[in-house]
Amino acid sequence: MKLETHNSEIRLNRHETKTQMKIKAGQVLLVLLAASAVMPAKDPLLNVCMDAKHHKTKPGPEGTLHGQCAPWKDNACCTANTSSEAHRDQSYLYNFNWNHCGVMPPKCKRHFIQDTCLYECSPNLGPWIDQMWFDPAKGNPNVVVAKYYAWKKRSSPVGMENVTPEAGKAVCALPRPVLVLLPLALVLLPEGARCGPPAWGSL
To answer: 77 lies in which domain range?
Structure first.
């Protein structure tokens, strides 16, 4: 009887060991499953640089970036030279002068420089990159602007002011939010153009 009891205990221990192993294996699988759910999948739209005039081909550490571009120094799409040029009043980046409509107040200028640094340096703009850039060989950008204003005029309530821009002023008539959000659009402004109020004092 003792032998039978001993054999039963051995079988019971083996069964418990197998059950414990199954439970532990299940726990390990559960932890791995949870970890894979928590870890973000590699997003092809992040950690990419725009295919644009002053951007690097791949993001990477840049060492030293100037002023407001510094937050991207560990993984940047811009070079140190580009970040420095973004802070100059007359920059070679887009042949643009921050003071083209009069002396820009420091707070306003800081905003535009920060916006330029984001555009030039961030490797995480992939979701907003539109690969359908304007091709000068395929048409005049003022035609696109004119179509926008024609649509806006048709869809405006009766009594709204005429929103169609004068000839040659189509670019200046772009809505200010477009100009604020897309610094590249400012490049389209003719040299010496005066858009909006004669000075920045009202901002």
So the answer is: 67-202
Whether residues 22 and 92 share a domain: the answer is no
- Please indicate, yes or no, whether residues 20 and 91 belong to a single structural domain of this protein: no
Same domain, 28 and 92: no
3-state secondary structure the chain: CHHHHHHHHHHHHHHHHHHHHHHHHHHHHHHHHHHHHHCCCCCCCCCCCCCCCCCCCCCECCCCCCHHHHHHCCCECCCHHHHHHHCCCEECCCCEECCECECCCHHHHHHHHHHHHHHHHCCCCHHHCCCCCCCHHHCCHHHHHHHHHHHHHHHCCCCCCCCCCCCCCCCCCCCHHHHHHCHHHHHHCCCCCCCCCCCHHHC
0.85 exceeded by pTM: no
Q: Which tokens go with 7? A: 């054999």
Contact 62, 76 (CB under 8 A): yes
Q: Any idea what the Cα angle at residue 43 is, between residues 37 and 48, rounded to 5°?
A: 155
Instruction: Report d(CA 54, CA 90) in Å as an integer.
Output: 16
Q: How many domains does the chain have?
A: 2
Positions of the chain with pLDDT under 50: 159-174, 178-182, 184-187, 190-192, 194, 197-203
